[in-house]
Here is the input.
Amino acid sequence: MKIGKVSQTVLKRSMLKPLQFHREEAIFEPSAWEMCYGITCEEDEEILVSDTVLYGDEKDLGVFALAHVMNDLATRGAQMIGASVHIMLPPYAYESRLKSMMEYIERAGSTHAVQILCAKAEVSPVISKAVVHMNGVGVIKKGEFLQSNMGSANQDIVLLKWIGLEGTFRAMREKEEELSKRFVPTFLNTIRHMESELFSTEAIQVAKEYGASAMQQITAGGILATLWEMAEASDVGMEVELKQMAIRQETVEVCEFCHLNPYQLTSAGSVIIFAERGEELVQRYEELSIQATLLGRTTADSARLILGGEEKRFLDRPAPDELLKIYDMN
Here is the structure.
């Protein structure tokens, strides 16, 4: 495609035409000429916005971006209504790729009752990977906003789902040809079916019902970065058990093959929760057949410890996400 903002013809044909799902809260439908978007809300509600930027070669890159913002809004107590998406492509990309990316986004959005409010695209000569910038817009009841700094000492720390979940899926997407030579098709199919685990809004709502004081989705830097960031935000220490950090065997295998550290690997859909009733929450998740483990406790001192059998080590400051190594290999 030509460098620069895509034409209105391309925009209508490959970005707006795939959009079918609509919510009544949207003030107007996305168009080729309108640069703004908006939603209506009730008097006792507030509007909350979250954004993310992802890059890669995956055609479903926008699905991961949608999961990022949707889960982030849910951890703050908001229900996502819609999203705006801005896609940047390198010059060698075809229009068919743009259309395919939008079809993936629309499919995931309609599945989770999220309307695409605005869709734009451009071709840039300075990038070699696709870039998806997504803004998620949600509504929240006044007084129900949760922040990462609302945790306190002597609370349980719960891990919802598994570490490295998103990173495993995206590494497989980027290295599928190499992985297919190492693993049988059923192994890769199992990873493909993990996509449904990227969206955790219902499970996050359960945590709210059990008195979660603070929640944060595991994204860049993996579980180690998220634990550090939550401890910093709430000014608490913590003691967590390494063996309680649930990890799928598929993640272990892919990380070993790609030389990635799963503890520093992005995991959209997985959430760290501070709660007073962590054991009850984990039990409730078990009843709902949702993966969750009790990692440990927050503490009143400043020490942040990871316990591994007889060994103890201090939690380090966040490091770059391991998924970056995948792009260095390409």
Remarks:
- Residues 52 and 137 are 12 Å apart (CA to CA).
- Residues 4-141 form a domain with the 60s Ribosomal Protein L30; Chain: A; fold (CATH 3.30.1330.10).
- The chain has two domains: 4-141, 148-329.
- The longest helix spans residues 95-111.
